[in-house]
Design a protein that fits this description.
This protein is an alpha+beta fold and about 180 residues long. The protein has one domain: Chalcone isomerase (3-Layer(bba) Sandwich). It has 4 helices and 7 strands. Strands 1, 2, 3, 4, 5, 6 and 7 form a 7-stranded antiparallel sheet that branches. A hairpin with a 2-residue loop joins strand 3 and strand 4. It binds heme C. Heme C (HEC) binds next to strand 3, strand 4, strand 5, strand 6 and helix 4.
Length: about 180
Amino acid sequence: MKRLVPIALSLVLVLAGVAAHTGCATAEDEGEMEMPFGGPEDVTFAKNLWQGMMGYESWKMSSDYYEGMSPHGAFLRMYYNVVNVEGAPYHVIVKDNFGGEGATLEKVAESSEDYLAAVTVMVQRHEGYDPENRNWYYVKYDADGAVSMNEESMALAGRVAKGMDSGCIACHAKAGGDDYIFTND
Ligand code: HEC
């Protein structure tokens, strides 16, 4: 995205490479019946992440407000930081998704909280979390911080829609450079 503060971009690029060495939390239980997302651990991590990223609106590495496209809302703003979650540091990319009646870039920039529709976040987890997909953890929050649900009442947290034709992973897998991040393409 053109407006993103350049330093944020290069840092995300550099840090994504070393991210495997941070954030070694507890090993996931890879039971055969385990769903790739929406489980109790995914939701607990999402809640702790939300606590850890409180105040992200004032993180130094952030973009301006910019016009977005489907599925990420009409107007967007992005933020990056290292956040401690459950005692370990993680690379966290936050995206505010704005929209609603009468939203314009100016109005959103002026009173963003009135137009916040959802907060989508990617966190690079430890090596082995999801090796086929660069170990990214995804979560979507409603504007009030509650973890969003899909139509089947599954929480949108974890390896969201892994193995499916659409959803976070399927779409982000198409990002250039095989890093699952679009912004640096
Ligand atoms: C149909 C494709 C698609 C789906 C599905 C999708 N995204 Fe994205 N996402 C994008 C595109 C394109 C961008 C970059 C452009 C922009 O800013 O909107 C992006 C950007 C992001 C970013 C900023 C980092 C980056 O890649 O630039 C985050 C964080 C993010 N998405 C999270 C999510 C989460 C969480 C989900 C699932 C709940 C999700 N996305 C589903 C297409 C998608």
